[in-house]
């Protein structure tokens, strides 16, 4: 915001055009789904052209309903896509921990453990293995919250194909067809759209 350029203005007008063209769009919350936390974690490595910092994205569902989502530039520049994905996993695991504590405090019965989906094999292996020294020695110690929470059985870490990764919508520019597909997976409906 300190030094906006024409590129920033074009991005802003594109977002405003999308919002104006979708006045009836909103999240549908189902009243009859099984209460099970499912989270999707993703990262777009070195996506910011100015700083080369990565973008983390996560979305968390309770049953079929989207209850939490985040998209944020990572605080440090990562040296690999695995590290960027692992940092996104750390953010998502903290979100799962917070939601689990919230549900427990409200005494809501839900299926345990949560499911966490990640489309990066290396990040999943780093979380599961404590012996990946060469890949992990430059990763900040704080990111190892993933491994700690995985071993405490807070969640199961599962693979997902990149095309089905719901968090992609929060980290990458997508073609319109894939964008609409992921919107439907997030439970986004347009009340003005024909059924």
What are the SSEs and their pairings?
Blueprint: H1 6-20, E1 25-27, E2 36-44, E3 55-62, E4 65-73, H2 81-105, E5 111-118, H3 121-128, H4 133-136, H5 145-151, E6 155-159, H6 168-171, H7 176-185, E7 188-190
Parallel strand pairs: 2-5, 5-6
Antiparallel strand pairs: 1-7, 2-3, 3-4
Helix pairs in contact: 2-3
Q: What would you note in describing this structure?
A:
This protein is α/β, with parallel strands linked by helices. It has one domain (35-190): Nucleotidyltransferase, domain 5 (2-Layer Sandwich). Helix content is 37%, strand content 23%. The chain has seven helices and seven strands; from the N terminus they run αββββαβαααβααβ. The protein has helices at residues 6-20, 81-105, 121-128, 133-136, 145-151, 168-171, 176-185, and strands spanning 25-27, 36-44, 55-62, 65-73, 111-118, 155-159, 188-190. The strands form two sheets. A five-stranded mixed β-sheet has the order 4-3-2-5-6. A two-stranded antiparallel ribbon has the order 1-7. Helix 2 (81-105) packs across helix 3 (121-128). The chain is globular. The model has no long low-confidence stretch (mean pLDDT 89).
């Amino acid at each position: 915001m300190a030094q906006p350029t024409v590129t920033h203005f074009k991005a802003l007008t594109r977002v405003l055009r999308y919002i104006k063209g979708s006045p009836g769009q909103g999240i549908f919350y189902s009243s009859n789904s099984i209460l099970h936390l499912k989270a999707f974690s993703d990262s777009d490595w070195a996506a910011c052209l100015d700083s080369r910092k990565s973008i983390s994205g996560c979305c968390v569902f309770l049953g079929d309903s989207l209850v939490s989502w985040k998209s944020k530039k990572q605080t440090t520049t990562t040296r690999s896509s695995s590290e960027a994905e692992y940092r996104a996993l750390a953010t998502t695991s903290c979100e799962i921990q917070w939601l689990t504590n919230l549900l427990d405090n409200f005494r809501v019965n839900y299926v345990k453990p949560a499911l966490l989906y990640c489309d990066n094999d290396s990040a999943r292996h780093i979380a599961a293995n404590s012996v990946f020294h060469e890949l992990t020695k430059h990763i900040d110690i704080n990111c190892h919250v993933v491994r700690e929470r995985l071993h405490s059985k807070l969640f199961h870490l599962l693979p997902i194909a990149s095309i089905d990764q719901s968090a992609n919508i929060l980290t990458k520019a997508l073609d319109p067809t894939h964008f609409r597909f992921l919107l439907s997976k997030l439970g986004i409906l347009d009340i003005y759209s024909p059924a």
